[in-house]
Amino acid sequence: MFGIILKVRNERLGDTAQTVLLGKTMLEWVTLALGEETTAVAADYDANVEVPAQAKHYAGASKKYTVVLFSDTPLITKKTVIDAVAVAENGNLNVVKMTRGYVFRTSFLLSCERLYTENTHYFSEEDFLTADTPHNLALVTDVMRNRILRYHADRGVRFEDLGTTVVEGDVAIAAGVTVGPQNILKGKTVIKEGARLLYANVIEDGIIGEGAEINSSRIYHSYIGERTTVGPYAYIRPDSIIGPDCRIGDFVEIKKSIIGAKCKVSHLSYVGDCEMGEACNIGCGVVFVNYDGKNKFRSKVGNRVFVGSNSNIVAPVVLEDGAFIAAGSTLTQDVPQGALAIARARQVNKPEWTGNRFCPKE
In Å, what is the CA distance from 143 to each residue of 84, 136, 138, 151, 281? Predict the structure, then answer.
């Protein structure tokens, strides 16, 4: 079987072949319907020319049948294509006209310039919903979204709210995963067995390890280890690796960093361009200062390091194993193994000061 996909343009959507629908172009969705074993080509469609006249130039003469589809029907399925070819074979027909698309006996297609049949064979009509306007594209998208959710649900994924969940076509979800309301899973995201996606996450090109729990967070092109919890309201930026059994808490931002096993970054911290060992504790309000206005620098943190709240780690510095950073410190130098680092101004009280207009003296 040979496949030809006619790329349709229209005034409202432009080139439908390149219009993206749930992670794939519409041309890619139509190509899937032809199957990997089918040779397929894509050609520009001219509405002023009969389909046989423009399709014959691309047909594969060695194939018995040629299927002609259109790029604006991304819901077309492989089953419908196979059923249409079977109608042509069983009925010894030169052409099977579908609602939108054709199956030609290739020898006939190569010898004709126009169609001589008005008979239409009907299959699953949902397959032929046409994305020819923005409104119809939205309708087609919703049908595709529900097909994808049904596919995963049939394989053991539990969705708590189908109406608010979006899963793109290349996402992989293991059986036993729970997906809560308002989750959006994009790109080549992989969700492994036993993971729980709680409320309102956006994950794009992320890998979520077994037993991990993600809550109201954003994760992009990063890896989350087994049994690690993330969120609520965490932001994991691209190229980050979070190890197993970690805690990444609320309003934490991780940027291009490696976080070792059993680390805790519990709240209101920024970890940027850092390589962190295992079993570290990063206190509230800690900032890894990785940018001097011109260049980015990396910091390295060993195992079992404690960084007290409201500290600034000004890269590039190395905090060796077991280092303890006092709260409120601003570090610009390395801290040796097991040392206590205190880097803050000495407190000085001025009881005789009279400038505080908010607390006047009586």
Answer: 22, 11, 9, 12, 46
Question: What count of other Cβ atoms lies within 10 Å of the Cβ of residue 240?
Answer: 25
Whose tokens are 């032809």? That residue is 34
For 4, 93, 339, the CA distances from 87, given in Å and listed in that order, are 19, 8, 80
Question: Maximum distance among all alpha carbons in the chain?
Answer: 107
Among 33, 79, 141, 131, CA closest to 4: 33
For residue 173, the cross-strand partners are: 191
Distance between CA atoms of residues 259 and 266, nearest Å: 13
Q: Are 180 and 198 within 8 A, CB to CB?
A: yes
- What is the predicted pLDDT for the residue at 361? 57
> What pairing do the DSSP bridges indicate for beta strands 270-272 and 9-10?
unpaired
CA distances from 253 to 104, 266, 338 (A): 57, 11, 27
> Dihedrals φ, ψ of 109, to 5°?
-60, -40
- The CA–CA distances, whole Å, from 27 to 41, 98, 158, 198, 301 equal 11, 18, 30, 33, 48
Write out the catalytic residue numbers.
Answer: 267
What pLDDT is stored for residue 359 in this prediction? Answer: 60
Low-confidence ranges of the chain (pLDDT < 50): none
